[in-house]
Amino acid sequence: MADPSYDWAALYQKHRDAMYGVAYEVLRGSGRWDLAADAVQEAMVSLMKAPPSEPPRSWEALLVVTAKRRALDIVRSAAVVRGVEYAEEYVAGGAAPDEDDALERLEKMARARAAIARLDAQEHYVLAQYIVLDRPRDEVAAELGVTPGRISQINTKVLSKINAAVEGGG
């Protein structure tokens, strides 16, 4: 049972970003970053079920450490389920085992950003509205004063430019 003298909602609101950040970093290396919110939730539930007998000197420290422990539990349980052994320094937030892949992904993202920066205004609009926001082609066409077929052409052109930059390195 949660101790009513602690305002758990306020504590969560104040420290959720720090908790999420730590959980995300721990889980990112194992490819389970998508479970960071679960680690934060489990941390809050465990503290609510067994609250500290006296208020801690730093709520942030307690909440962040608890979230980190829950994230480590998730990584370790994933390792057991998959039968994969993770090096302890890797689990604790050390360097990723395949840094070359991570570097390559970062370089590709940088090339994609550069290609996007070179798009004209109409191409940017189609990228944002039609591709990213998945708005109907007819609506985007009406806003730009072109035919829906032209939106498809611009879409293909934008994706080709980005793909060429990412894959070709240019």
UniProtKB/TrEMBL annotation:
<dbReference type="Pfam" id="PF04542">
    <property type="entry name" value="Sigma70_r2"/>
</dbReference>
<protein>
    <submittedName>
        <fullName>Sigma-70 family RNA polymerase sigma factor</fullName>
    </submittedName>
</protein>
<dbReference type="InterPro" id="IPR036388">
    <property type="entry name" value="WH-like_DNA-bd_sf"/>
</dbReference>
<dbReference type="InterPro" id="IPR039425">
    <property type="entry name" value="RNA_pol_sigma-70-like"/>
</dbReference>
<dbReference type="GO" id="GO:0003677">
    <property type="term" value="F:DNA binding"/>
</dbReference>
<dbReference type="InterPro" id="IPR013324">
    <property type="entry name" value="RNA_pol_sigma_r3/r4-like"/>
</dbReference>
<keyword id="KW-0238">DNA-binding</keyword>
<dbReference type="InterPro" id="IPR014284">
    <property type="entry name" value="RNA_pol_sigma-70_dom"/>
</dbReference>
<dbReference type="GO" id="GO:0006352">
    <property type="term" value="P:DNA-templated transcription initiation"/>
</dbReference>
<dbReference type="GO" id="GO:0016987">
    <property type="term" value="F:sigma factor activity"/>
</dbReference>
<dbReference type="InterPro" id="IPR007630">
    <property type="entry name" value="RNA_pol_sigma70_r4"/>
</dbReference>
<keyword id="KW-0805">Transcription regulation</keyword>
<dbReference type="InterPro" id="IPR007627">
    <property type="entry name" value="RNA_pol_sigma70_r2"/>
</dbReference>
<keyword id="KW-0731">Sigma factor</keyword>
<comment type="similarity">
    <text>Belongs to the sigma-70 factor family. ECF subfamily.</text>
</comment>
<dbReference type="Pfam" id="PF04545">
    <property type="entry name" value="Sigma70_r4"/>
</dbReference>
<dbReference type="InterPro" id="IPR013325">
    <property type="entry name" value="RNA_pol_sigma_r2"/>
</dbReference>
<feature type="domain" description="RNA polymerase sigma-70 region 2">
    <location>
        <begin position="11"/>
        <end position="78"/>
    </location>
</feature>
<keyword id="KW-0804">Transcription</keyword>
<feature type="domain" description="RNA polymerase sigma-70 region 4">
    <location>
        <begin position="115"/>
        <end position="162"/>
    </location>
</feature>
